[in-house]
Amino acid sequence: MNKRTYGKVCCVVNCNNTQYNTKNVHFYSFSMKPHKVEQREKWIKAVRRRNADGSLWQPNKYTKICSEHFIGNAKSEHPLSPSFLATIFL
């Protein structure tokens, strides 16, 4: 994105979902809680983004991923659920 967008925007490459152009889509933060480090790292790996210099991309406290990347259109907090990780990327 060249233009700065305010509000909820999905961080997945080529996903254009924002809070303004979608309905029935939820936006989830990458947890910063110490007990959710494993889930956060798995989400980062699943998103497969890189910085311009080739280094591994890291989300910040404002970064969101939309529900369209989770089975059932919603994330799950249960580690055995197929919706625990984002797995849908077109």
From TrEMBL:
* Domain THAP-type as annotated: residue spans: 1-89
Q: Give the keywords, sorted.
A: DNA-binding, Metal-binding, Zinc, Zinc-finger
List, in alphabetical order, the Gene Ontology terms for molecular function in this entry: DNA binding; zinc ion binding
Pfam families recorded:
THAP (PF05485)
> Where does the source fall among the domains of life?
Eukaryota
Which PROSITE patterns does the UniProt record give? ZF_THAP
Q: Does the keyword Glycoprotein apply?
A: no
Protein's name according to its UniProt entry: THAP-type domain-containing protein
